[in-house]
Amino acid sequence: MKPRVLIVDDEEFLRKMIVMGFERDGFTVFQADNGEDGVKIARQELPELILLDLVMPRLLGFEVCQILRNDEQFSKTAVIIMSAKSYKPDMDKAAELGADAYVVKPFEMAEMLKTAREHMDKRQNSK
Amino acid sequence: MMKVRFWGTRGSIATPGPSTMRYGGNTSCVELRTGNHIIILDAGTGMRELGNSLLKEFPSQPLTIHVFISHTHWDHIQGFPFFLPAYQPQNTIHLYGPPGRDKSLDKILTIQMDSDYFPVELGAMSPNIHIHEMREDITIDDLTVRHFYLNHPALCLAYRVSDGRTNVVYATDNEPYQGTLFRQAQNPSTASDFPTYLDEKFIEFLSQADLLIGEAQYTTEEYKEKRGWGHSPLESVVRFAVQANVKKFALFHHDPVHDDDFVDGMVQEAKQLTGLYNGTTECVGAREGLEIVVP
Question: Can you give the CATH number for the domain in which A111 is found?
């Protein structure tokens, strides 16, 4: 079965690029352009991986991460926060909220895919 | 027409004393009046004197005041507990701002007034205090207030207040992405123009503003040592203002180590830079008590 990823980012151009990258790598991709829709789609589709932009309309990436990590059904889901903000307090808070990784934009798609697969494996193999 | 008055122009921490007499030592707080609206941009320590002035002007008339908080670092919220109009039950105060990373705006403002930090709790203020997290642009009668997330080590917003004709932008505590993403930008195999693309979105937000209240925290020289602290070198703020065709730029959020003479020098430098970039933006130093009428 194809791995499933949800990409939540309000930046349309960037989101499309990331979608293409994951589709090429064999993922089934779902997408949303704001945090609130991201949570809805996550609950409907229960993907193994969720990529969250940090600053988004309605719900921020941190808030979505917090919601997901407080929901038992996402305990095996890897969550990656991605942002052009490269400040340490943002990275520390992402880790504290249970994000598996914080990736600074712009990133190499190959590196993102590698990071994503590593964290998906870790989550899937966790007890 | 909008009337802007500065009550606190300092960044980071209040700096009273003889060396800051002219530009002032209070932290960020700006009053904007248009029609019957009372808008306040940030709630730094300058807010205390603003509150006293409002009480003098409106001793008994019920007021509706809209306060827009850029972010919840101390220099932008510490004046609120000392803002006396917020204690009068006839007044309605709407507070807007971004949420924290894992706390609501309401919670952060409540914690600031916890009894370990302050003798009066938020709940003891007027019952008509309404706290709103900025999730979308808002309309107050004939005014629209747009928001834009800045590049700062906190969730931080710029605001653009418009009556459809006059536009004032309040944008402090912002670092150009060309500064923080420079390592990525130097890597030719990545999207090297991505930081520029992000900074252009900011310039778009400033576009054609009649007044930009923008930060002047660092000189270009100082910025070399302060990269990643969430503030701008003067050069980039002036360049963005010129590119956005801003009419007037008020240098604001003065660094606590900058005395009055130093700020004078930065205003001069801003004017020279404007000329260098072939701009027409007028540069002024924001000082406590300065009033700017924006036609």
Answer: 3.40.50.2300
Size of interface A-B (CB pairs under 8 A): 52
Domain region containing A71: 4-125
ipTM of the complex: 0.90
Cβ atoms A65, A52 nearer than 8 A? yes
Measured in angstroms, the CA of A59 and the nearest CA of chain B are apart by 8
Our count of domains for chain B comes to 1
**Model pLDDT for residues B209-259, shown as the tens digit of each residue:** 999 999 999 999 999 999 999 999 999 999 999 999 999 999 999 999 999
Which tens digit of pLDDT belongs to each residue from B47-59?
999 999 999 999 9
Domain membership of residue B213 as a residue range? 2-294
Tell me which of B71, B73, B101, B194 to substitute to probe the interface with A (most A C-beta atoms closer than 10 Å).
B101
Q: Are B203 and B236 in contact (CB under 8 A)?
A: no
Phi, psi for B120 (deg, rounded to 5): -120, 130
**For chain B, where are the alpha helices, taking DSSP H only?**
47-57, 105-112, 177-180, 182-185, 194-206, 220-226, 234-243, 260-276
Contact B233, B223 (CB under 8 A): yes
Q: Which two tokens stand for residue B16?
A: 């009273």
* Bridge partners, residue B160, by sequence: B146, B169
Q: Which residues of B touch A87 (CB under 8 A)?
A: 152-153, 180, 228, 230
Answer yes or no: are the C-beta atoms of B79 and B109 closer than 8 Å: no
CATH number of the domain to which B190 belongs: 3.60.15.10
> Residue A28: helix, strand or coil by DSSP?
strand
Count: domains in chain A: 1
Strand partners, B133: B97
CB-nearest to B198 from A84, A88, A89 is A84
Q: Shortest Cα distance from A82 to chain B (angstroms)?
A: 13
In the stretch 142-171 of chain B, residues with CB closer than 8 A to chain A read: 149, 151-155
Is residue B146 within 8 A of residue B159, CB to CB? The reply is: yes
